[in-house]
Amino acid sequence: MATSTWTNAALLTELEPVVAQNLDRHLSVAKEWMPHEFVPWADGTNFERLGGKQWSPGDSQVSDVAKTALIVNLLTEDNLPSYHHEIASLFSRDGSWGTWVHRWTAEEGRHAMAIRDYLLTTRAVDPEELERARMTHMGNGYASSHPDEVLHNLAYVTFQELATRVSHRNTGRITGEPICDQLMAKIANDENLHMVFYRNLIKSALEIAPDQTLRAIVDVVQAFAMPGADLPGFQRKSIEMAIAGVYDLRQHHDDVVMPVLRFWKVFEMTGLGPEGQKAQEELVATMGGIDTQAARFEDKKAMLAERMKR
């Protein structure tokens, strides 16, 4: 029975070899790609200040819901400085942890760059509204709900990276635009590799501190929210995106949370202490609740779609 509590410092030290191993793995499989190659620069024109024309809704060739999804995804990526601060402060900038933090930040940095270049070049969205939204969102920053907990943050980013992959991939598909679809697929692949890295760390943490790690996983699953959840009008935007198939509770349950939990084999874990056993029982109940909510949303999807048109 494992009931001892590990400190953050002890966990960081114990997991350092696992970080080094997975960093080497990541670098061996991550393929270089160039953001500028996924932007149709020849389609671009100057805006009004430089002798061109002011943006108008007729300039956009994507649907309103695809536009919403692209903006939400971009603004979420924009907060990278805050994300970097959070993980660098917690994981440190030294050793393998530090190397990973900077590598992750470098890879994530090209996502917002590429999406914004695509949107502005193709005039897919109002550039002034986009910039004001960026200023507001980044001005609010981002803070982890468990800023001093290594295990909670590792569990959170595992689910969050996979959720972002699903959202980016589906956003590309609903645009109906081949170049945008290819770009979002590249970004989604980055997110998937990041998820695998964090997923492997939690797998090792479950062997080191099973009760403590399982408790962290359950806490994260129960309170999970995407980093962009504080965007103005996010609730309506998230419903629009869910109806369009970008990301909904069914996908969250079936394509994000459950596959990761199965990989960790948390439902089959034995030899847990009282805290771990309680967390395991809570997790079963929590996943059942998410499944029920997902089914209810499916039943109401048509009604909600009609309501959103009003």
TrEMBL record:
Cofactor note: Binds 2 iron ions per subunit.
InterPro entries assigned to the protein according to its UniProt record, in alphabetical order: Fatty_acid_desaturase-2, Ferritin-like_SF, RNR-like
Positions in coiled-coil regions: none
Gene Ontology CC: one annotated term: cytosol
Listed GO biological process terms: fatty acid biosynthetic process
Keyword entries, A-Z: Fatty acid biosynthesis, Fatty acid metabolism, Iron, Lipid biosynthesis, Lipid metabolism, Metal-binding, Oxidoreductase
Subunit organization: Homodimer.
Protein name: Acyl-ACP desaturase
Species, as recorded: Luteipulveratus mongoliensis
Source species taxonomy: Bacteria, Bacillati, Actinomycetota, Actinomycetes, Micrococcales
